[in-house]
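Quick question, first post here. What does this chain look like in 3D?
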Amino acid sequence: MNNIWILAQSEGSSGITSESVTTEQTSTTTVASDSNSTAPGERAPGLFGSPLILFGLMAVVMYFLLFRGPRKKQQQHKQMVQTLQKNDRVRTIGGIIGTVVDIRDDEITLKVDESNNTKIKVATSAVGRNLSKDKS
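> Answer (accepted):
Ran it through. Tokens below.
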């Protein structure tokens, strides 16, 4: 096998030509690289090609999970406390059920026992649920 055949297409002609190369002749072959190909050590760009895009996407997800949800719950609780009125039945976060007697800036007076007229004062943040408004 002294002859090696090389197939090549020239720019001027439309056909493919072949020529014989003997083992005595030395030739170098160059491969034209495609614009989308990568070098052997490089990573091909995929869906998340840039790490900055990936970190940005993770930051947006973390914002919604860590900050948006609790802030929405705080707003709902604040609105519930602002709509409390006298004679509403409420349950505190500690499980005490009582009737609202008095509402001040940051404390609510609850009547917990009708027979002894027992009243307690709790912070507005301690009110967990308004049982008069929630019929479930």
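Residues 83-130 form a domain with the SH3 type barrels. fold (CATH 2.30.30).
The mean pLDDT is 79.
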